[in-house]
Amino acid sequence: DYDNADESAGEFSMGTTIFLGQTLGEGKPHKGGDIIGNSILLFFVIGDRLTVLLPLTAGGIAGVSEAPEEAFARTVAYIRICGAGSIVIIAYNLIGSVFRGIGDFPDTLVTVAIACVCNIFGDLLLVAGFHMGAAGAAIATVFAQLVSVGISFVLIRKKTLPFSFPENRSDLKKECEQDHWTGIPHALQDFLVGLS
Question: Which of 52, 115, 121, 135 is deepest in the core (most CB within 10 A)?
């Protein structure tokens, strides 16, 4: 269920990809900075709340998910650890959406591949090596995406981006609402498919 929420966050960030791609395609790079700034603000607010809310409600989520009694404690631990890393997981999805929005698919592939490799090695080390079970898998997931976020920041700093962050913030709310409503259908569709 947590993985379903993570995928939904990725689909929700598609609003940033779509809106950024449209704006750059229309030859309005000055608006690109607004879109990115608003996405960072929106996702920070969401991530900030999830970081607190998910660990506190992990038991309830595991109960609603009908986790088997013998795996209930491990499920709660997994949700708590990944929930505490929500801000990292959301940053991972947001940065991927920026790369896709500017048409930088090679770097998107590299950062996803790095996250996958780190996750696999983390699972082998923590789950198979240290026998940490679900908690080890959760730590490996969050750590892998943290590494990917760090590498993404390094890659972004070396690029000449096709947009700039404007000084005028009067249209931030409008841009944020457009970005928000563009991503909701993707997130809802993915969430409902996973839920079913």
Answer: 115
